Amino acid sequence: MPHSSPLALAFPELYQLEQLINQHPQHIRAQSLATIQVNHHALPIWAIEIGSQAANVPTIGLFGGVHGMERIGSQILLAWLENLLARCQWDNSLLHLLSTVRLVCIPLLNVGGLLNSTRSNPNVWI
Prior knowledge:
Elements: H1 6-10, H2 12-23, E1 29-38, E2 41-51, E3 59-63, H3 72-87, H4 92-98, E4 102-106, H5 111-116
Parallel strand pairs: 3-4
Antiparallel strand pairs: 1-2, 2-4
């Protein structure tokens, strides 16, 4: 996977998430919830939805990157999303299942902590 910027090298999870959003617009609804300024970088907090948009369907929330020094949760969630979206290309039974539920994912919740490799977000005063 080629990286297009120094930030992509420093923050491969953000790069991977944005690649998934760009590669699968037919299956992902993406929204930037906020933009956090960290070390002169504007970092989006992406929320993505997959599946039904109906108000009354069961909804599952999946979150990663809560503690910035614990990257594995984000990496597992991104790998799972990558697999799920690849299956959406050919698995009609999965597409049917997704039409009955909604998945809400925020794989990089604490983008500032992830970039700085700190447990807390950059705005914590100690």
